Amino acid sequence: MKAALLAQDGSVLFEARRPTGREHGTDAVVAAILDFAADLADEGRARFGAAPLAAGVAVPGTIDEKNGIAVFSANLGWRDLPLRKLLGERLADPADGTRGAAMPVALGHDVRSGGLAEGRLGAGRGVDRFLFIALGTGIAGAIGINGRIEAGAHGYGGEIGHVVVRPGGPTCGCGARGCLETLASASAVSRAWAEASGDPDADAASCAAAVDAGDDRARAVWQTAVDALADGIVLAQSLLDPSTVVVGGGLAEAGDTLFTPLRAAVQERLTFQMPPEVVPAMLKDTAASLGAGLLAWDLLSMEVTA
Asked: Which of the ends of the chain has fewer CB neighbours closer than 10 A, N or C?
């Protein structure tokens, strides 16, 4: 878990990290989140002499932002968790003296929150249309429009990882075949490189290192992932026409080893489309927590205007 105290202008006042404790079960994860948030609020009181005005929390899985419900997370094991209510009650200001004066809490999806932070504070700052792609264990994305993230009619906007780029290809966890994340995620590259190298412990990072060292097997694995990712980006470019594609996540840590061939692959696939600028994310693994803080400030702004 990553957390931060965020000023209204987005500047970071304090940051901290803790393990989720998921090996101890779902209840332990929820308790860890609540304890972490309470300790962060205490840190704010101690450092600045005032309680935080609002909180934001970004989680993986399926969420109901409107009602503040973390609907489902396979990794963390919860279903229909009323996270906004739980967190708001836990963070009620003890100086208030009243019961039930819960702190305002914004709930967001981790990747969309990360995209929000990249759009306002990171690589997408000042860009009116961008696509954020997170290359991790899977692949997720977020559509940025004028400083906000478009979640879609049902909350699934930006799910580029489940765009089919190889019909009939590898089976995806979503049930489809040939989804982008089955070919270009860090886990997909790790699996392919482990098979090609004969080393069961090989991973995406070691594949990138082998590419840099000139290993032809690694280059073939890497190019397969790059080609699939380029196809996904070009499909998104045709539909959304973003001016910038921001790529983050663990695989993006390969730097030019990824971005040089990826930019070339995107360019060679374009016909009538205007080429997007393909850039690395700036905020690394802090993006989601910073995005959660921005959601909290947005929540306060909406309350003031209402």
From this structure: C
Which tokens in the block code for residue 163?
A: 């765009």
Per-residue pLDDT of the chain (306 residues; tens, 9 = 90+): 999 999 999 999 999 999 998 899 999 999 999 999 999 999 999 999 988 999 999 999 889 988 999 998 877 889 999 999 999 999 997 665 445 578 999 999 999 999 999 999 999 999 999 999 999 999 999 999 998 999 898 888 999 999 999 999 999 988 999 999 999 999 999 999 999 999 999 999 999 999 999 999 999 999 999 999 999 999 999 999 999 999 999 999 999 999 999 999 999 999 999 999 999 999 999 999 999 999 999 999 887 665
Provide DSSP, 250-292: GGGGGTHHHHHHHHHHHHHH-SSSPPPEEEE-SSGGGHHHHHH
Which is nearest to 113 in space by CA: 294, 288, 246? 288
Alpha helices in the chain (DSSP H): 26-48, 83-90, 110-121, 181-184, 186-197, 204-212, 216-240, 256-269, 287-305
Instruction: Specify the DSSP class assigned to residue 20.
Output: -
Q: What angle do CA 74, 76, 81 make, to 5 degrees?
A: 95
Distance CA 289, CA 118 (A): 11
Assign 3-class secondary structure to 64-94: ECCCCEEEECCCCCCEEECHHHHHHHHCCCC
CA angle 90, 91, 97 (to 5 degrees): 95
- Token look-up 């947005």 returns 298
Give the pTM.
Answer: 0.91
* Selection from 18, 14, 15 nearest residue 34 by Cα: 18
Q: How far apart are CA 141 and CA 69, in angstroms?
A: 21
Among candidate residues 188, 182, 150, 185, the one with its CA nearest the CA of residue 164? 182
Complete domains list, the chain, with CATH: 2-110+286-305 (3.30.420.40), 123-281 (3.30.420.40)
